[in-house]
Amino acid sequence: TLLTIPYEIRHMIYLEIPYLKMDQPLVYCTSVFNGRKHHPLSGICRQIRAEASEIYYSSNTWLIKTEYKMFYDGFVKWIKSLDRYSVQALRFLHLSLRGPLFYKSRARPHIHDLELERKFSRAKYSYTTYSIDLSEKYENGKVEIVSCLGGREVAVTLKKILEVHVKGLWEKKAKGEMRAKDVKRVVDEMLEICGWW
């Protein structure tokens, strides 16, 4: 049986199974397998489910969309549905934010105060997506701007804030203590800064 094979070989086998490791970021609310919410391997036995889930959550990039409340609600439902081992396995995230802070105005190019920027741009929205790497490769994690449709200066400022939160996540992950509430807290704090819906 599969369980009698050494783990290293099982790991190589898992990597060859379709839909376990994807090339494109996965959106938590639409990542299904032929209409099913879980990969077929999750129904075999606990050990295989645990091993396959670890690869699934650690090898794929998860896109956290927060542009609209329904996306955020989907994220909260998804992250809370994961067991602690799956949350702990998360390594690669993309966080998409939409808010007035990203709006670029030619009339006021030198405003650097975030609160002032928010007040002036209340009706203007734009988008920025950040990549978050929580792997062991980068001490304290790594944050990069993947795309920015709006004010680059504000996106860079928020990147620095996000790096502080990611450092905290990375430290918890390194200790095996990262939980769903920790990931949700980072998302909530970024939304608090850039603006909710």
UniProtKB/TrEMBL annotation:
Domain of life: Eukaryota
Protein name, as recorded: F-box domain-containing protein
Organism of this sequence: Aplosporella prunicola CBS 121167
Highest classification ranks of the organism: Eukaryota, Fungi, Dikarya, Ascomycota, Pezizomycotina
